[in-house]
């Protein structure tokens, strides 16, 4: 945008986002985002879904069938939308997001939230870790180069409950044997979030005015984060704190658990080797071990101001979220399908 205030915009400029399209509105983060947007009463929310999708969508959402690899299908679905939120499965074809971004620009969509929900995609050290994350910032460049759309990326860390429930490859919990692996000393702080917190954050962002009215308008507007990351978090927590929370929730004692220690870097290298051998759990091991390096790459809160207060996000309770994680473990949560 060439000017920073509403008073400098053309007569067709609308200082609010009314129509929002979501890809993946039935998924882990897409569903709470869609629900929170509907809850505001300020948005018409449209889910772009593939033919044959079995996802359950929030009540009140509109749906449009789409073929992500057919530009005409995408353009038809995106016509008239103000904003687009992309949440794609890890199994989506690598070029899917690029096709969606280009279609969004051709449809005139001004605001795009790309498929970046997790670790800090602006951190070159993390991005170049051999985990395929180098593609993440490419979405930022591609969106900007359209000359039509601006991006907003939600940096939220790992999803806490899902991560805990996945077992040893992620945060080191082996529930069947009551064994815990601490990486290094187990005291590295890492920012994590819940999908519900992500949903609230996105709804708050897209419910703001886009620009301040003039130089005297001090209200928080979406423009603060256009072509920038938005850092949010539910908790900044260590592995030791996670295990203590689990014990509080379950009533288990220190003596019930066997604790061992491993180097995060060695775990990371082992995970990369497992990845090369086609082991998906190796990717999880490498990813979580890398973010928990003691250099602070997983603790973005210490480097940047969180947007929690600006967005009016609530302070969540760690033990409550650990209780939710236990419920996922008890009912056999499947991280590959994101289904119970």
TrEMBL record:
Q: Which GO terms describe its molecular function?
A: oxidoreductase activity
* UniProt keyword NADP present: yes
Q: Give the highest taxon in the source lineage.
A: Eukaryota
UniProt domain NAD(P)-binding: residue ranges = 24-119
Q: Which UniProt keywords apply?
A: NADP, Oxidoreductase
Keyword Oxidoreductase applies: yes
InterPro entries named in the record? NAD(P)-bd_dom (IPR016040), NAD(P)-bd_dom_sf (IPR036291), NmrA/Isoflavone_reductase-like (IPR051609), PCBER-like (IPR045312)
Q: Which family does it belong to?
A: Belongs to the NmrA-type oxidoreductase family. Isoflavone reductase subfamily.
Mind telling me what this protein is named? Oxidoreductase CipA-like
């Amino acid at each position: 945008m060439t000017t920073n205030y509403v008073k400098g915009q053309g007569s067709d400029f609308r200082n609010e986002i009314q129509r929002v399209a979501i890809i993946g509105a039935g998924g882990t983060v897409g569903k709470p985002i869609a629900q929170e947007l509907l809850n505001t009463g300020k948005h018409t929310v449209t889910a772009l879904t593939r033919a044959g999708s079995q996802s359950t969508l929030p009540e009140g959402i509109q749906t449009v069938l789409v073929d992500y690899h057919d530009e005409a299908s995408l353009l038809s679905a995106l016509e008239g939308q103000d904003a687009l939120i992309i949440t794609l499965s890890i199994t989506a074809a690598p070029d899917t997001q690029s096709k969606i971004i280009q279609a969004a620009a051709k449809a005139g969509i001004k605001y795009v939230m790309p498929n970046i929900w997790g670790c800090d995609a602006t951190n070159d050290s993390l991005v170049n870790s051999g985990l395929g994350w180098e593609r993440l910032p490419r979405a930022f460049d591609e969106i900007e180069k359209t000359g039509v759309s601006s991006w907003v990326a939600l940096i939220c860390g790992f999803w806490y409950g899902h991560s805990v429930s996945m077992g040893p490859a992620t945060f080191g919990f082996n529930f069947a044997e009551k064994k815990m692996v601490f990486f290094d000393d187990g005291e590295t702080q890492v920012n994590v979030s819940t999908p519900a917190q992500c949903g609230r954050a996105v709804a708050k962002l897209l419910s703001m005015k886009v620009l301040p009215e003039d130089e005297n308008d001090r209200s928080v507007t979406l423009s603060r984060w256009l072509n920038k990351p938005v850092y949010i978090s539910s908790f900044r927590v260590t592995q030791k704190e996670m295990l203590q929370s689990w014990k509080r929730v379950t009533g288990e004692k220190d003596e019930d658990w066997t604790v061992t220690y491993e180097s995060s870097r060695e775990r990371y290298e082992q995970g990369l080797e497992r990845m090369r051998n086609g082991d998906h759990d190796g990717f999880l091991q490498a990813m979580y071990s890398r973010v928990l390096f003691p250099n602070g790459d997983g603790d973005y809160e210490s480097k940047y101001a969180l947007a929690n207060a600006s967005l009016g996000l609530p302070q969540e309770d760690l033990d409550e979220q650990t209780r939710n994680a236990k419920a996922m473990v008890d009912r056999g949560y499947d991280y590959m399908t994101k289904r119970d």
